[in-house]
């Protein structure tokens, strides 16, 4: 691995950590439920991106499968939370 890629991955993970902290503040302080759901959606997306960058760093395909699972579960949970906020129930 080149030194440029090593430093770029380190910078990227640092930026994701900073963004995750800011989203966590929004998740805890969000005045409305919609803000909290959106913050949770961003948080799982950032977790997926961290897993992808870690997979690039370790040069392994297993991380990409984990990122796909995070994306699938995150989409389903976001859809369920949106339906719960909209109608007050998830299963009709």
From TrEMBL:
The protein's topology relative to the membrane is:
Multi-pass membrane protein
User: What InterPro entries does the annotation carry?
Assistant: MrpF/PhaF-like
| Origin superkingdom | Bacteria
Q: Which UniProt keywords apply?
A: Antiport, Cell membrane, Ion transport, Membrane, Transmembrane, Transmembrane helix, Transport
The membrane-spanning stretches of this chain are 6-25, 37-57, 63-86
Give the subcellular location: Cell membrane
Q: Name one Pfam family in it.
A: MrpF_PhaF
Recorded hits in NCBIfam families, A to Z, give:
PRK06161.1 (NF004812)
Family, according to the entry, reads as follows: Belongs to the CPA3 antiporters (TC 2.A.63) subunit F family.
Supply the PANTHER family for this chain.
NA(+)/H(+) ANTIPORTER SUBUNIT F1, NA(+)_H(+) ANTIPORTER SUBUNIT F
Designated name of the protein: K+/H+ antiporter subunit F
């Amino acid at each position: 691995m080149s030194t440029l890629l090593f430093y770029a991955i380190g910078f990227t993970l640092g930026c994701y950590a900073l963004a995750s902290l800011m989203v966590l503040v929004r998740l805890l302080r969000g005045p409305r439920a919609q803000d909290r759901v959106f913050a949770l959606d961003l948080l799982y997306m950032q977790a997926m991106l961290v897993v992808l960058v870690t997979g690039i760093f370790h040069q392994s395909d297993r991380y990409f499968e984990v990122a796909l699972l995070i994306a699938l579960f995150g989409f389903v949970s976001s859809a369920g939370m949106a339906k719960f906020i909209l109608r007050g129930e998830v299963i009709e």
